[in-house]
Amino acid sequence: MKKGLNSFQLKIIGIIFMVLDHLYAYLNFMGMPIWFKYLGRTVAPMFIFLSVEGFFKTRSRKKYITRLYIWGIITEIGNTIINRYFSRPDDAMIINNIFLTLAVTLSILALIEKIKNDKKYVTGIIGIIILISLSIFVEGGPIFILVGVIFYAFREKKSIMFIAYAILSLSIIFGAESFTLKTLLYNNYQWMMIFTLIPISMYNGERGRSIKYFFYVFYPVHGWIIFIYSTYLLSK
User: Fold this and answer.
1) Distances 212 to 86, 199, 207, 209, 215 between C-alpha atoms, Å
2) Which of 72, 84, 86, 186 is the 20 to 30 A CA-CA neighbour of 220?
3) What is the span of the domain harbouring residue 110?
4) Span 170-221, pLDDT tens digits
5) pLDDT per residue over 114-159, tens digit each?
6) How far is 63 from 56, CA to CA, in rounded Å?
7) Would you place residue 1 in the very low, low, confident or very high pLDDT band (cuts 50, 70, 90)?
8) In whole angstroms, what is the distance from residue 222 CA to residue 228 CA?
9) Which residues pair with 203 in a beta bridge?
10) What distance in Å separates the CA atoms of residue 111 and residue 202, rounded to the nearest whole number?
């Protein structure tokens, strides 16, 4: 066994941080600490990184991407039902759906591969333009799509990949209304996704233990449970 963290271990770290992030998002009225949200900023890029690794290692890219779309649709339907029947007094809604982000990202990568290998320039470019246009409707938008492209383009050049990702992460700071420490710590803290570099730099390239559908099920279900529980508490 190689030193470092395998894919399974990174996923476990990711879901722990994800749960903390969602506890802060939906139960913040109970005084959840802000650092829950800080840890949560590393989760989506970590799963994007792992999905790009899966893109290269899966036996069927078509099935892999299709599975992400299917679970994205399932999550979207569940979110819609939850928001309709468990509305909160503060009108907060559950909208998280990283599956569609991953599906769109990998679809773009598949088209890039088609252009490289099959020389399908027109089809590939048109498809990429359409998917980039649609990316504004998925979680994280074009920023997360670009994260996936960076992980894909520089997969074999880790130093360049880390630098490009760091620049992208820190560039988010310029979207803040001000550059005060308070703003960067309590309002515009998405830049903290730069710390995703710590766990992924420890990735050893191994798959590790496999629980095929656990992560697909856990992602939407835990969010629904936390959201419904928060609705119950607020209605008391």
Assistant:
1) 30, 22, 12, 9, 7
2) 186
3) 7-230
4) 999 887 667 788 888 888 899 999 999 999 999 999 998 888 799 999 999 9
5) 999 888 888 889 999 999 999 999 999 999 999 999 999 999 999 9
6) 13
7) low
8) 10
9) 5
10) 29
- What are the b/e assignments for 39-66, b being 16+ CB within 10 Å? bbbbbbbbbbbbbbbbbeeeeebeebbe
What is 115-180 written as a DSSP string? HHHH--HHHHHHHHHHHHHHGGGSTTHHHHHHHHHHHHHTTT-HHHHHHHHHHHHHHGGGGSS---
3-class state of residue 205 by DSSP: coil
Distance from C-alpha of 88 to C-alpha of 84, rounded to nearest angstrom: 10
* Tally of structural domains, the chain: 1
How far is C-alpha 214 from the geometric centre of its chain's CA atoms?
A: 17
Q: What is the pLDDT of residue 94?
A: 95
Q: What percentage of residues in the chain have a pLDDT greater than 70? A: 99
Does 137 map to a domain? Answer: yes
pTM of the shown model: 0.94
